[in-house]
UniProtKB/TrEMBL annotation:
Family: Belongs to the major facilitator superfamily.
Organism of origin: Vanrija humicola
Transmembrane segment boundaries: 27-45, 57-77, 83-99, 120-141, 147-168, 247-268, 280-299, 311-329, 335-356, 368-392, 398-419
Key words of the record: Membrane, Transmembrane, Transmembrane helix, Transport
Positions of the Major facilitator superfamily (MFS) profile domain: 1-423
Name listed for the protein in its UniProt record: Major facilitator superfamily (MFS) profile domain-containing protein
Gene3D superfamilies per the UniProt record, alphabetical: MFS general substrate transporter like domains
Major subcellular site: membrane
Localization per Swiss-Prot or TrEMBL: Endomembrane system
Record GO terms (molecular function): transmembrane transporter activity
GO CC annotation: endomembrane system; membrane
Membrane topology: Multi-pass membrane protein
InterPro entries: MFS, MFS_dom, MFS_trans_sf, MFS_Transporter
Length: 428
């Protein structure tokens, strides 16, 4: 949860700072959007190297590594150096976000009551995005050297890194999840006396025929040691993923969903300032967006369980589109801010629900890797879609945020239609 809180903190803090950073560096929308391009590079690097790094250092070290990478990024940003240095810092930022998102999501799907836990984990992401504007917005409104905010973020990143190191104690994911298998082992032990009793009863009854042989066969099977697990290499895992068509639909879906989520969060302050005449305090609307996302991921759990995963994804997304149209065609600052909060509320549950659905349709041997690639492609989308939004806004105006939001939400609905409803074929 702490790892996702840090990731959300990053996403929620950027938007309120953008107008002031544009003034400090004297740059337009397009040049400002290059931060998302370099973050894209970092996210893709994290995605492509995620499996390789995990196989070598394990879950217990890769998550703290992600937090350290973000802290390095914040240190570079906080110096207020040349814009080129600011861009390089976002490479480290994107890498840290991608590896943490992938690792945490995969681990959570392997826990009991995964849907509820995933909703709370993703709510922590939203909580980070909700809280961070309370820090970044005052910097944007009252501090001349607005970039100094990133030293605050660096401190939070380092604290998170230390806590994760102590909590995970360098353990791998298998070691962490293995503790949860004790109940299953105990259940197996309870079955063994029943097998012995069945054999005894068969012998006492003189049934040395089928019953006796069957009982002996059961005992023999129970006593036979299981074959040792086959070690699957990183290359074999990657090949397995790349030959599964559904994986590409899931990666594309994550790219668009997280991309539009971050684009709305990143540009909504600028939208309210430039299009609706709000002041710098409009940055608090980002808190509303992420707050809505946090609350939605928890409050809507019962509704999601009642109507099912597939229907809930479509329903929540269509409501979000309707709210985007309301923002597009109304001029009230307060009304727009409230609607942005409800967009977050209904978009929020979509991602954790999709991850749980993913755990149902993919084989265990590739699920973790796919989760990592989805997280990385989501990080890439978080970089690319805001970049495209900034480029379009530079050419046509920031009002285009709304048609972009509507089209992107519609796009991820179509992509989700390509994901199978039932478990795909077994291992090849």
């Amino acid at each position: 949860m702490l790892s996702m809180l840090l990731c959300g903190w990053n996403e929620g803090s950027t938007g309120p700072l953008i107008p002031r950073l544009q003034e400090y560096y004297n740059i337009n929308y397009l040049i400002m959007s290059l931060v998302y391009l370099t973050m894209f590079v970092g996210a893709m690097t994290g995605g492509l190297s995620n499996i390789w790094i995990t196989d070598r250092i394990g879950f217990g070290l890769i998550c703290p590594l992600g937090a350290l990478s973000q802290s390095i990024a914040y240190m570079l940003m906080g110096t207020g150096g040349p814009y080129g240095l600011f861009l390089v810092a976002f490479v480290f930022n994107g890498f840290g976000l991608a590896v943490q998102d992938a690792q945490v999501n995969n681990l959570t799907t392997r826990l009991p009551h995964a849907h509820t836990k995933m909703s709370f984990v993703q709510a922590c992401f939203g909580l980070g995005g909700m809280v961070s504007p309370f820090i970044s917005t005052p910097f944007a409104a009252h501090v001349k050297e607005v970039y100094r905010y990133y030293f605050v973020a660096m401190g939070i990143g380092l604290i998170a890194m230390v806590i994760m190191l102590l909590a995970f104690d360098r353990r791998t994911e298998e070691q962490l999840v293995g503790k949860l298998d004790i109940a299953a082992i105990e259940g197996k032990k309870k079955e063994e006396p029943a097998v012995e009793l069945e054999k005894h009863d068969a012998i006492q009854a003189g049934t040395v025929g089928e019953a006796g042989h069957a009982a002996e066969a059961v005992v023999a099977a129970a006593d036979t040691p299981a074959d040792p697990p086959v070690k699957v290499t990183s290359g074999e895992k990657m090949k397995r993923m790349l030959t599964t068509p559904t994986v590409y639909a899931l990666m594309a879906w994550a790219f668009v969903y997280i991309g539009v989520e971050v684009a709305i969060s990143g540009w909504l302050t600028t939208y309210l300032v430039r299009e609706r005449g709000a002041n710098a305090n409009a940055g608090f609307a980002v808190t509303g967006f992420w707050g809505g996302m946090t609350v939605g991921r928890i409050v809507l759990i019962p509704f999601t369980n009642k109507v099912g995963y597939q229907f809930s994804i479509y329903f929540y997304s269509l409501v979000a589109i309707a709210l985007e149209f309301v923002i597009w065609y109304t001029k009230s600052v307060v009304g727009n801010a409230v609607c942005f909060a409800f967009v977050g509320f209904f978009m929020g549950p979509v991602y954790p629900v999709a991850l749980i659905k993913l755990s149902e349709i993919l084989d265990d041997d590739i699920r973790g890797g796919v989760m990592g690639m989805m997280g990385s492609m989501g990080g890439a989308g978080a970089a690319a879609v805001p970049l495209i939004t900034g480029a379009i806004s530079d050419r046509f105006g920031i009002w285009t945020l709304q048609p972009i939001g509507v089209s992107m939400i519609g796009a991820y609905i179509l992509l989700w239609m390509m994901v199978p409803r039932h478990k795909i074929g077994g291992k090849k």
